[in-house]
Every structure is written in structure tokens, then in C-alpha cells.
Amino acid sequence: MNKLALSLCITALLFGCVSTKSPTGRSQTLLFSDAQMQQMGAQSFAAMKKDQKISQDKIKTAYVNCIAKRITAVLPDQSQQWEVVLFESEQVNAFALPGGHIGVYTGLLNVAVNQDQLATVMGHEVAHVLAQHGNEQVSRSQLTGIGMQVADAALGASGVANKDLYMAGLGLGTQVGIILPFGRHQESEADIVGLELMAKAGFNPQESVTLWQNMAKAGGSQGPELLSTHPSHSTRIEELQAAQNQVMPLYIQARKQSLTECKINGRK
Questions:
Q1: Residues 140 and 27 sit within 8 Å (Cβ to Cβ)
Q2: Which of 145, 170, 136, 220 is nearest to 38 (CA)?
Q3: 8 Å CB contact between 180 and 146
Q4: Is 265 exposed, middle or buried (0-12, 13-18, 19+ CB in 10 A)?
Q5: Catalytic machinery residues
Q6: Per the confidence metrics, is the pTM higher than 0.85?
């Protein structure tokens, strides 16, 4: 207990502990500043662009960028510039990082078969950033053993091991072989916040249910990596269905505006 208390005191002095509420009212303890989280996000994204193949398919890249642009256009902070990269990989996955970074894998386009379904995943991933889930995860790791190395990374250390650890803390554990996944409460929260984002951006929230049904079928019983730590398929679908009445008015209102339809191979 003395060691834990000492750790908490040191952490508070170094980072300035902040207690806040998530978008759904859940209590959060955040140890890292926005600047530190943005630094971790930028360094992680730069490492991924260096280590992984970037798609050269201009049509698919434009399609992904179109959807991302509409989603980020409804975020509260419009001063943030977002970088979007399509990675060439069979992975059925996507992610978003603090500091305005979105990564999508080409394998996801085989499961998210229209703009609304892809917006479901991208809205979910951006919601993780909006709800500061990465900060929660890295903060938790700071207090449970991995933390000091992650803290070093946040303060500017550049060792390879540290890079892997803070990438894991940002939800990229499956990419670097270190599992530090978002919790199920965070995943459910990102589902609901992401649903609101996609509806505000003019993407049909009803397609979210179809998307996750497709996800449940993908890859057999285990499913794709994107589902590895998420709520069960049935729980997720039930929660999304229950939220439809709340978000459909946002979608209807958004569709009254002039929106750029995102198309690929002649389909939206």
C-alpha cells in the first residue's frame, strides 16, 4: 500500500491527475495531458506508417477519406486536422489515435460493404479518441506495473520497448504483440458515441446493426481482430438497436443538408 501511495503521489506530481466524466457519464481518471496523448498518438502513427504497407489504391483511399471527412466534420473540436491512411492488409480492422490520426485496413472494406457500415467502424474508433479511452488505458497501466515505461514514452523517451508499450496503451496491442485492450465498458461507450457521430454525419445508423452482423460472420467463430475484446455480438446488436430511436432524428436532420456521397466501384 505504501508503494501504491507513493506511486500515486509521484504520478500526480508528474502528470496532474484529472477526474472527469466520459461522454456517457462514466467516471474517468486521466493522468496524461492532451499534449502528451497527442505526442503518443503521433509517434505511434508514424511508426505504423513506417512498418506497414500503405495502400496505393487511389479509389479506395478517396472513399475512406470521404467517410472520415464527414465524420470528423461533426466533432466538437474543428481545429483538429485529421490524417487518414489506408493500410494494405487483410486485417478486418481500423483505429483512431489522439492527435488526429485514423488508420483503416483494406480487409475491412470486404466486410463493411457500404459507406454507412464503414462509417459505423470509423465512428466507433473516433469515439474512442473523443472519449479519451487511450488516456484511461495508459493511465491505468501507469498504476499497474507497465506504467513507468509508458510514462517514459509519454515524456519523450524513444526506446523500442517503450514504443510498443504506449502503442498497446492506445489500443494497438494486437499490432505490436502486447495486449492492453480497451475494456468492454469503453467498447460499448464507443459504440453509442460512434453511432451518434455517424448519424450526425448523415450515415444511416440502422446499417450499424447489419455491419456487426457481418462482423460476427467474418472469420468463423473467432471473428476478426476488431471483435477480440468487444462485447458479445448479441449484446452489441441489442444495444445498437435500442439506441436507434435516439439517433435516427440526428440522421434525418443531417440528410436535409447537402452531403457528399462516398462511393466505391459505383456503390455507396
A1: no
A2: 170
A3: yes
A4: exposed
A5: 125
A6: no
